[in-house]
Design goal:
The structure holds two protein chains of two kinds.
Chain A: E1 14-23, H1 29-38, E2 44-45, E3 58-60, H2 67-73, H3 79-89, H4 94-109, E4 122-127, H5 133-145, H6 154-157, H7 162-171, E5 177-180, H8 186-199, E6 205-210, H9 217-225, E7 254-255, E8 257-265, H10 266-272, E9 278-287, H11 297-311, E10 320-322, H12 329-343, E11 351-353, H13 356-359, H14 366-380, E12 382-383, E13 398-399, E14 405-406, E15 411-418, E16 422-430
Parallel strand pairs in A: 3-7, 4-5, 4-6, 10-11, 10-15, 11-13
Antiparallel strand pairs in A: 1-8, 1-9, 2-3, 6-8, 9-16, 12-14, 15-16
Chain B: H1 7-21, H2 43-57, H3 72-82
Classes of the chains: A alpha/beta, B mainly alpha.
Chain lengths: 432, 84
C-alpha cells in the first residue's frame, strides 16, 4: 500500500457527477433507488411470445418504455436537445433509445446543459458488445424473403459502435470514443477505461453507457444449454428464481437495463461547481486465461486486491461489497471464497448484497447498474435486501437478509466477472 | 401492385414515407418538383424512402434504376413504371 491519499480536490481524483438508468425496477434514478430500498424485484414471467418459445420465460425486462413519451416528460430540457434526440433516435432500435434516455438523465444531472465544457474534452464509452442480437434476429425472417426491403439504416445499426455516433451527435461529444467489451464485466471495463481517460488527461469528463443486453431467443437458448441460466425449479414462482448465494441458486436470471455514468475530473467538476456523487478510487481488470465460462478464485481475488491497492485502501476499510452474485452455483461459491481470501479477518464484517437479485443479470450493463446501486446506497445510507437469501451458502459472510438495513457506507467495492476469464473490481468512496 | 394504382397513389406512398422519415417536413412541402435533399434528407434517408416505398408497393427494382433520379417526380416514375 502506498501513502498516497485521494481527496476530492486531488487532480487525479475521478468523480461521478451524473447517473441515469432505464431498468426493470425503475426508468430513472429516483424510481430505481426507491425499488432498491423497498427490495422490489423486477423479475417476473416474460409474457411476450417469441419464435421459438424461450426455454426460460423468466426475466427482469424493461416494461412500458416509450421513447417519445419519456422525452416529452423532460419538459425543462432545451428544445434543441429534445429535437436532436427525437430526430436522431426516433426510429432507432430499443437498445439505442434506452441508451439515449439513460444518457440524457446523466447528462442533465451533471449539468452539462447549463454548465457546459468543451466538446473536445468529453469522451464517450459504450460498455457492451453484441448489442444488436435481437434486432438482427427480428429482421431475419423478413430478410430471407425480401432482401431488397432491408433498411439501408441496417448498415449503421447492426454495429455496436452505432451507439457512439448516435450519442455523440445528440450531445455534441467530440473527444475520444470507443466500445468496451468484457462479457458480463463490460460495464466495469467501461468505467475503468473512462477513469483512465480522465486520469491520463485525454478528456476532462466521460460518459460511460452500459447498453441493454437485448437477447434473442437464440442467445437465451445458448445460455440455457451451457447450463448458466436458472429458472427451472422455480419455473412457476418467477419472483423466487433469482437467489444469489442461496443454497437453492441454480443459474442467472436475465435482466435488462441501460445505465449511464458521467465520470469527471475533480478539477473540472470543481470549476463547474457541480457536486461529485462519489469518487472512483481504483479499478482493476485481469484474465485467468480460460476459453470457458469457468470462474477462478485466484483471478477474482487478484482483481479485488489490485483495485484495493490502487485505491490506497486496506480491505478492512471497505464497508460494503456489491457482489457479482449472479445466482450461479459455481460462480457464487467461487466469488465468496475469493472475497473471504481478500478480506481475511474483516470478512465477517464487510456487508454483502447482490443487486442482480432485484434487477436480474443485466450482462453488458451490470457493472454500471451495480455501480449506480452502490452510489445510491452510499448516498442514502442503506444496504438493499437479498430478497431470496434463505439459506446462505456461507454462514460467516455478512449478507444482508431479506430486509434492507440502515448503514453508513464510506467505501464500497463492486465486482463484475465475465465469461472468458475476465475479472474486474472497482472501489468507490462516498464524496463527503 | 394492383393494376388500378395510379401515379398519384404512388406519389402518396412516397409522400407518406418521406413524412415518416423526415419529421420536420410538413405535408404541403412535399411536391413532385422537389428533391429529397431539398427536404433535408441525407443519403441514408433517401435510400430508406426508396426501400420503404418498394415494400409498400410490393415491387423489387434494382437500385441502379434510381441512379438518374433527380427529384420526387423521377422517383415516382421509376416506381410507377416498374410496377406495371
Amino acid at each position: 500500500m502506498t501513502e498516497k491519499t485521494r481527496s476530492p480536490k486531488s487532480p487525479s481524483c475521478v468523480q461521478i457527477t451524473g447517473m441515469g438508468i432505464v431498468s426493470a425496477i425503475g426508468h430513472d434514478i429516483a424510481e430505481f433507488s426507491h425499488s432498491l430500498a423497498a427490495g422490489k424485484s423486477g423479475i417476473r414471467r416474460i409474457e411476450r411470445s417469441t419464435t421459438p418459445p424461450l426455454p426460460v420465460a423468466i426475466g427482469a425486462e424493461i416494461d412500458g418504455f416509450c421513447f417519445e413519451k419519456t422525452l416529452g416528460q423532460y419538459s425543462d430540457m432545451s428544445e434543441s436537445l429534445t429535437q436532436s434526440a427525437l430526430y436522431i433516435a426516433r426510429r432507432a432500435p430499443f437498445t439505442i433509445q434506452t441508451s439515449v434516455i439513460s444518457a440524457l438523465q446523466a447528462w442533465r444531472q451533471a449539468r452539462f446543459d447549463d454548465k457546459p465544457i468543451e466538446p473536445e474534452r468529453i469522451g464517450l464509452i459504450i460498455a457492451g458488445h453484441n448489442t444488436t442480437q435481437n434486432y438482427q434476429y427480428s429482421l431475419c425472417s423478413d430478410f430471407r424473403r425480401n432482401p431488397e426491403y432491408l433498411s439501408p439504416r441496417y448498415a449503421l445499426q447492426f454495429m455496436d459502435s452505432n451507439q457512439i455516433g448516435v450519442l455523440s451527435e445528440i450531445f455534441n461529444i467530440r473527444g475520444e470514443g470507443f466500445v468496451t467489451g468484457g462479457a458480463s464485466a463490460s460495464g466495469n471495463v467501461g468505467i475503468i477505461h473512462g477513469t483512465r481517460l480522465i486520469q491520463s488527461g485525454v478528456v476532462d469528463a466521460c460518459l460511460v453507457v452500459g447498453v441493454v443486453a437485448d437477447l434473442s431467443p437464440m442467445e437465451i437458448q445458448g445460455f440455457y444449454t451451457i447450463g448458466a441460466m436458472g429458472g427451472k425449479q422455480f419455473h412457476d414462482q418467477p419472483e423466487k428464481a433469482c437467489r444469489p448465494f442461496d443454497a437453492l441458486h441454480e443459474g442467472f436470471i436475465y435482466g435488462q437495463a441501460s445505465a449511464c455514468l458521467v465520470l469527471e475530473s475533480a478539477t473540472s467538476a470543481n470549476t463547474r461547481n457541480v457536486p461529485g456523487l462519489a469518487i472512483i478510487l481504483g479499478g482493476a481488470i485481469n484474465l485467468h486465461a480460460t476459453a470457458t465460462s469457468q470462474p477462478d478464485i485466484d483471478g477474482e481475488a487478484k482483481a479485488m486486491n489490485a483495485a484495493l491497492q490502487q485505491s490506497s485502501l486496506a480491505a478492512n476499510e471497505i464497508d460494503y461489497l456489491n457482489t457479482h452474485g449472479s445466482s450461479s452455483p459455481l460462480g457464487d461459491s467461487v466469488e465468496i471464497q475469493a472475497i473471504e481470501q481478500v478480506f481475511g479477518d474483516h470478512f465477517p464484517r464487510v456487508r454483502l448484497n447482490a443487486t442482480k437479485g432485484l434487477t436480474g443479470h443485466c450482462l453488458n450493463s451490470a457493472g454500471v447498474v451495480e455501480t449506480i446501486a452502490s452510489v445510491v446506497q452510499m448516498q442514502q445510507g442503506f444496504i438493499h435486501a437479498n430478497v431470496n437469501l434463505e439459506k446462505p451458502i456461507n454462514t460467516r459472510a455478512n449478507f444482508c437478509d431479506a430486509t434492507a438495513v440502515s448503514q453508513q457506507i464510506h467505501s464500497a467495492m463492486n465486482n463484475s466477472f465475465g465469461f472468458g476469464g475476465i475479472n474486474t473490481s472497482i472501489v468507490l468512496q462516498k464524496n463527503h | 401492385m394492383s393494376n388500378a394504382m395510379t401515379k398519384t397513389e404512388v406519389f402518396n406512398v412516397v409522400k407518406n414515407n418521406i413524412l415518416d422519415i423526415l419529421p420536420k417536413v410538413q405535408p404541403d412541402m412535399v411536391t413532385i418538383d422537389k428533391s429529397l435533399s431539398d427536404l433535408g434528407a441525407n443519403s441514408v434517408d433517401r435510400m430508406e424512402v426508396v426501400t420503404l416505398s418498394m415494400e409498400d408497393l410490393g415491387v423489387k427494382i434494382p437500385l441502379l434504376s434510381f441512379a438518374g433520379v433527380t427529384n420526387i417526380e423521377g422517383l415516382v416514375d421509376v416506381l410507377f413504371n416498374n410496377a406495371q
